[in-house]
Amino acid sequence: MPKLWNETIEAHRRDVRDAIMDTTAALVAEDGVLSVTMSQIAEETGIGRATLYKYFPDVEEILFAWHEQQVTSHLQQLAEVRDRGGDNRERLEAVLEAYALLSYGSRGHHDTELARLLHRGDHVANAEHQVHDLIRSMLVEAVEAADVRSDIGSDELATYCLHALTAASGLPSKAAVRRLVAVTLSGLDSRH
């Protein structure tokens, strides 16, 4: 087959896959995990059940794929924030705020059956490790520049930041999230 044809087919498959995942996520958010069926997903997506089964064997696999896509997107967002200009402290603050805002944006999802289902996948542990490494490497640079405290290892400081900022999911506003980031940063202050 010509290359253009292959690219068109692949683009169509990606579009169908994305539509299936988005539809499933919307249905689950509306009706709950146990209420959504493959027939309902096919109907809402506008495809046949046989086509749906060519992409995914069941609802759980659709949700895992959707969640993995969300996690990958969040990791990319954090890397983009890290790569923006500014000194070490400014970049670290921007990444911590972005992470906290992502946590804040997911509030209401963390205590649900959906979260329990999705967070048992290996991709979550891998993503947590990647975020920890990203923040740890930024802290190493900030320690070298004397922008953050050096009396505690960067690995421990990264763990501190991540645990502190997960509290953002329970906060009432973005302003409260920003205050949490400020408090977290004060714990990194090199004057301690």
How do you describe this structure in short?
With 192 residues, this protein is mainly α. The chain has helices spanning 3-31, 38-45, 49-55, 59-82, 88-105, 113-118, 122-144, 154-165, 174-186.
How would you describe this structure in keywords?
192 residues
Task: Please provide a written account of the structure.
This protein is mainly alpha-helical and 192 residues long. The chain is 73% helix and 0% strand. The protein is built from nine helices and no strands. It has helices at 3-31, 38-45, 49-55, 59-82, 88-105, 113-118, 122-144, 154-165, 174-186. Helix 5 crosses helix 9. The chain is elongated, with a radius of gyration of 20 Å. The termini are far apart. The mean pLDDT is 89.
Show the helix and strand layout.
Blueprint: H1 3-31, H2 38-45, H3 49-55, H4 59-82, H5 88-105, H6 113-118, H7 122-144, H8 154-165, H9 174-186
Give helix % range: over 70%
Low-confidence spans: none
What Rg, in angstroms, do the CA atoms define? 20 Å
Tally of DSSP β-strands: 0
Cα separation of the termini: 65 Å
Strand content: under 5%
Could you spell the SSE succession in H and E letters? HHHHHHHHH
| Class based on secondary structure composition and strand pairing | mainly alpha
